[in-house]
Design goal:
The protein has 759 residues and is mainly beta. It folds into five domains: 129 residues, Immunoglobulin-like; 131 residues, Sandwich (Jelly Rolls); 62 residues, Immunoglobulin-like (Sandwich), CATH 2.60.40; 128 residues, Jelly Rolls, CATH 2.60.120.380; 119 residues, Cadherins (Immunoglobulin-like, Sandwich), CATH 2.60.40. It is built from two helices and 57 strands. It has a six-stranded mixed sheet, with no helix packed on it. A hairpin with a 2-residue loop joins strand 44 and strand 45. The longest helix is centred in the first third of the chain and has 25 residues. The two termini are 13 Å apart.
């Protein structure tokens, strides 16, 4: 079969085999922050645990008003290091015993000739050394079995008096780049840190004064207890943050710390218990205090698991807490008075001005009765007209009349309630029923039905997965897309699958013709580049209402010279990998950038800014796109003096059963025996493989094969890693060996696999 040569001419400024080689290294990771918060106008020491943190040089945190300093890095001892410390400790203790014996006049056990000529002394420095060695050996004895949490960094956090309370993101800066982000919270009121307790049978308690935020963590078998005083009539709220601090744990089932809280009286009798709040695994406990006295709050894992990353924060006191907002969303540009439901909220009303808000879901943090900040709630902003549900509307005969292309705010306000709406449609008209409830914190587990004029069901939906909601493991919102069969009246039925209902069971129902659109997620949120060697990013397209077109991706807010290769998401595809590379003189510091996607939708150019995210595993198998506050790029040292430059047109077109030659140019070299070049495909499309890579006529030719039994028509990017291999002479009679040097990823190569061979 004749091979077709697609020459991809790539030039280097320096000799290919003489350039500095950078291997693709796994990025640094942090798995917990403890404590995970601090109080305004206070200074605390926090520990961040993770891996590949050696050489940590700084801390990055979002927002202002905080000063952070790295104090110490610790790596677990090896068995050899622990043995050396044990020997040193033994010698120190023997010397201390000998000194103590001499002080008491006890004759030494050894012969006089072996005794020191000067009188030995024991110093405070010796005491400190013994204490240090014991602490290191204790840590070694109790070391975590999870390498991902083994290294620790101690950081001092100073919070200014004018620091804004709320959630932040914290990362470490290391020689291997930026870590993933973790949550860190600033609060207005007292923060306390638990005193370590061992095991479920331990009766020791921590005493706290309300209101307070408790910082703690659970080790295997632990139950942490906190005693406090409360007064009669006090509406006590205990708000747990555990999964909120670390959404997913890869190697545990369930894939998060499942906190359980129990409130007891001073004698230990159970008064209240919570192990979740609606669909949120983090519990919220509410209790009206019947009499003055002391009470005890217990916290544990539901399965008595525990380890260093089972970190929690619990707000305790007569704290404000919002359970729902009505209406549950607003129209852009229209001031709206929101009714707040919940506890300790004071007036319970808030005027929201969305004039400067983009369409999308925004966060709202109301203020409670005593000026304390409540929990954050989600509030959608849309540009369609809005209607409010009007009761009664539980039967078709009294259905509420609505029109297409609007958002309806409603609630399933009691168990068994059904909301029915009537609209007029045309034969062949496409309609979308998109209900939002669980995604904005409502307990509603919706089911939506589309009925014709006679009540016959045309379409229905219970649960519809939305990858943009990366923190939700039960996608309970409904989505219906249908084509109307005839002109006339139609009905929409909205209910709860479990027949539940309350004033908090709110929803927003978009009734419209299809509105094609898209969102983007870019993974990872921290892109670490070694010099000008490209790095791989994955872009997810979350397509809406049937949008199927291509999306062009661009890098925004980056210094001049940064490049993005393979930057088109082909039509119909939801995910693609592309490469980003830095210029030779890129700054060696973290940079905040944005990715922007553009596409033509209904003859209009639509632009969307991508949300940075991290692809996290839960319970060994499930994966979630968890959003981050910012997209970071960190350039680490110098790699190649100049990046490869593609000289021929892409995409490379391939057909099943055909071989394709990719030719890479290299400058002349004086090395009489240059290293052997090696290309490898990284997660290639099905059926595409490398047959061989050879040096021919000044080119590195990499021949690809396309297996007709496996390859299907598709488009995307080929990601190739490059390395060199050279024979190294043996020493002392040993045979020669092959030494492989990894260089890194080259620029993404766009491709198309067609249905038949190319002419």
């Amino acid at each position: 079969m004749r091979a077709r040569k697609a020459q991809l001419l790539i030039g280097f400024a320096a000799t290919l085999f003489g350039a500095i080689a950078w291997a693709q290294q796994a990025p640094p990771q942090i798995g917990y922050v403890y404590p995970a918060g601090a109080q305004v106008d206070d200074t605390v020491l926090i520990t961040l645990g993770g891996q590949r943190l050696e050489g940590v040089s700084g801390v990055q945190i979002s927002g202002s008003g905080l000063k952070l300093d790295v104090l110490e890095y610790e790596k677990p001892l090896t068995q050899t290091q622990a043995g050396i410390l044990r020997d040193e400790l033994k010698m120190l203790l023997e010397r201390r015993a000998a000194i103590e014996a001499a002080r008491k006049g006890i004759p030494p056990a050894t012969a006089p000739s072996t005794q020191p000529t000067t009188r030995p002394i024991w110093t405070p420095g010796d005491d400190a050394r013994v204490a240090y060695i014991r602490s290191k050996l204790t840590a070694f004895q109790n070391r975590t079995q999870t390498p991902a949490l083994a290294e620790t960094v101690t950081v001092r956090v100073a919070v200014a008096i004018d620091a804004i309370a709320g959630e932040r993101e914290i990362r470490l800066v290391t020689p291997n780049g930026l870590t993933n982000p973790m949550k860190f919270h600033i609060r207005q009121y007292n923060e306390v840190i638990e005193k370590e307790q061992k095991g479920a049978d331990t009766k020791e308690e921590n005493s706290i004064t309300l209101p307070a935020t408790i910082n703690g963590r659970i080790m295997p078998g632990d139950i942490d207890r906190f005693r406090f005083k409360a007064t009669a009539g006090q509406q006590l709220i205990c708000i747990v943050q555990a999964r909120a601090l670390k959404p997913y744990i890869a190697d545990a089932v369930p894939g998060w710390f499942q906190a359980v809280v129990t409130l007891r009286d001073s004698k230990g009798a159970e008064l209240s218990y919570a192990d979740d709040f609606r669909s949120n695994p983090d519990p919220v406990l509410r209790y009206v205090v019947p009499r003055d006295g002391e009470y005890v709050l217990e916290v544990k894992d539901a399965l008595y698991r525990g380890r260093e990353d089972f970190v929690y924060r619990i707000g305790v006191g007569d704290l404000p807490y919002v359970t729902s907002v009505y209406p549950p969303g607003v129209r852009k540009g229209q001031n709206t008075t929101l009714a707040l439901s919940g506890f300790n909220l004071g007036a319970g009303r808030l005027v929201f001005d969305p004039r400067d808000k983009a369409v999308g879901v925004h966060s709202l943090t109301p203020t409670g009765a005593r000026g304390l900040m409540a929990n954050r709630v989600a509030l959608p902003v849309d540009d369609l007209p809005e209607s409010q549900e009007v009761e009664p509307n539980h039967e078709r005969s009294i259905a509420q009349a609505v029109t297409l292309n609007r958002v309806i705010n409603g609630r399933i306000d009691k168990p068994g309630d059904v909301d029915i709406y009537r609209f007029e449609g045309r034969a062949g008209q496409a309609v979308v029923l998109d209900l939002t409830a669980r995604r904005i914190g409502s307990p509603l587990d919706s089911i939506v039905k589309l009925l014709d004029a006679n009540g016959k069901q045309i379409a229905f939906n219970d649960d519809h997965a939305d990858k943009s909601d990366g923190l939700n493991t039960h996608h309970a919102d409904s989505y219906v897309s249908a084509t109307l069969p005839a002109t006339g009246s139609y009905f929409i039925s909205v209910a709860d699958v479990q027949n539940a209902g309350s004033a908090d069971h709110t929803y927003r129902l978009r009734l419209s013709e299809p509105q094609p659109d898209f969102e983007l997620r870019v993974v990872p949120s921290a892109i670490n580049l070694r010099g000008s060697v490209p790095g791989v990013v994955t872009v997810h397209a979350l397509r809406r209402d049937g949008f199927n077109g291509p999306i062009d991706i661009a890098l925004r807010d980056a210094p001049e010279g940064f490049t993005l290769s393979g930057n088109r998401i082909p039509a119909g595809q939801d995910v693609i990998r592309m490469t980003v590379a830095a210029p030779q003189k890129a700054p060696f510091e973290p940079l905040t950038v944005r990715f922007e996607g553009k596409s033509q939708i209904n003859d209009k150019t639509c632009s969307r800014i991508a949300v940075p995210a991290d692809d996290l595993m839960q319970a060994f198998i499930y994966r979630h796109l968890v959003p981050a506050e910012s997209q970071q790029i960190c350039v680490l040292g110098r790699g190649w003096q100049r990046l490869p430059t593609l000289a021929t047109r892409m995409p490379v077109r391939m057909a099943p059963g055909e071989n394709i030659t990719l030719a890479f140019s290299v400058p002349p070299t004086r090395d009489p025996s240059p290293p052997e070049p090696i290309f490898e495909l990284v997660e290639p499309p099905d059926g595409v493989s490398i047959v061989k890579t050879v040096m021919e006529n000044g080119f590195i030719n990499t021949i690809l094969a396309v297996d007709p039994a496996k390859a299907k028509p598709n488009a995307g990017n080929l990601i190739l890693s490059f390395a060199t291999q050279k024979q190294v002479p043996g020493v002392d009679g040993k045979p020669a060996t092959m030494r492989k040097t990894s260089v890194g990823i080259v620029h993404a190569v766009s491709y198309e696999i067609t249905r038949s061979k190319q002419p």
